[in-house]
Design brief:
The protein is α/β, with parallel strands linked by helices and 517 residues long. The protein contains 14 helices and 16 strands. The strands form 4 sheets. Strands 7-6-8-1-9-10-2-11 form an 8-stranded mixed beta sheet, sandwiched between helices. A 4-stranded antiparallel beta sheet has the order 12-13-14-15, covered by helices on one side. The structure holds calcium ion (CA).
Amino acid sequence: MFKPISLLLLGLLLLSCSGAKDEASSTSPNILLFFVDDMGWQDTSVPFWKEETAFNRLYKTPNMERLARQGMKFTQAYATPVCSPTRVSLMTGMNAARHRVTNWTLHKDRLQPMETGHKNLQFPHWNVNGLSPDSTIQHAAYAKPYPMILQEAGYHTIHVGKAHFGAIGTPGEDPLNVGFDVNIAGHAAGAPKSYYGTENFGNTTAFQNSPWPVPDLDKYHGDSIYLTEALKNEAIEALRTPVSNGQPFFLYMALYAVHTPIMADPRFVEPYLEMGLDTIEAWYASMVASMDKCLGDLMDFLQEKAIVDNTIILFMSDNGGLSALARGGEPHTHNKPLSSGKGSIHEGGIREPMLVKWPGVTKPESENDNYLIIEDFYPTILEMAGISDYETPQKIDGKSFVDLIKHPASQDQNRPLYWHYPNEWGPTGPGIGAFSAVRKGDWKLIYYHEEEDFELFNIKEDLGETQNLAATETSKLEELARELSNYLKEVDAQMPAHRESKEQVAWPIDRISPAIN
Ligand code: CA
């Protein structure tokens, strides 16, 4: 029988347990989100398609192979076609149509130059200032980013690399304002001026007023070190504090690579040059190899510190591989069998290489063919951290994929995924231009704003998007156009206007059955 004092102690113990249910503890998993910039679905030796491709044989990513062997490969993971919309969706859990940071950000309050002089379209004033944790910032998506929630729950949160979710001179440009305890090299810009330490990563007098030089890495200036390697060294240094304190950490390892400027990593380029590859492609392949080495070094560190069994690793890229410009060889072919690349709503622009290793949960060397989208990472990461009790000012569109991880065979064919880009990217090519789109089941409908016209593809049967079925599959066209229109109206999505008539671009459904709508 308990003595009164024991009952009191028991009561206190229960109280403290229930009160602390969402607090991070030494048993909370560490989370490493390894986020690559502009890496395509085929830029790896891990095959994400049903068969191995020439690209899988070209690129050497042994550490991605290692991660795939230890974890789960997602074959239909989506992002948006350009950087900032993806990064804001990742940080806020909102779909781009809702958060309105629909194009890439840089300067405060300013539309991109390519958007101000378009010959046929007048673009809306989208949220050019990006993500903001402060509700008073105009033209910004006000939200509570999930790193803030992790931080409040006791996680040590570390940002390394490219941020690119807030414009210059706004709170969102600095990762320290969105829930990170540590920020190394993250700021408003979405690309580095240089990958070379010998060039001070662009920090020279000639570029002192430019947004592109990489901040914070002064100690490497003048050294022959590649940017990806310097970021990896800094990440490991930053991890030592939480690892030695036994505090759970969230490391957002957001590489600048493999974004332009395409600059060879001298450690890896020779074999690609020797095989006679186009020079730019050899440089690019060396950047991929360098990214992979960074992943491997971080995995080694976790092993060395004996925290590998309590660390979840998520691998993802922010948009498709660049193909419309700046690459060697024929444009729009660098993500084959997918069509097009970065900037495009075709699969090459949005389908990403994604891996998840969750010790004790993901089955080693498993595959998951369910589709998901970048905003899903928000609720997923919080669920992985054991945090369920949180409030946000924003409505979260993302759906946790924890259940999909636990039950990979389940297939939800009814969930619609949406993309919305009432903007201009610049280059031209398949699937590039202002658009709205929906994927549901095997089908994908794309609505191009300028032409007010459709492409309808059966993604399962025609992954390369070669057969536009809009003229023949009319009931599917109407069903998806209605669903897409309803969603866009529900989230109050911005649409461009036609420059000449000044009329707003019609909702997709109104282009099909104007009489009944
Ligand atoms: Ca990108």
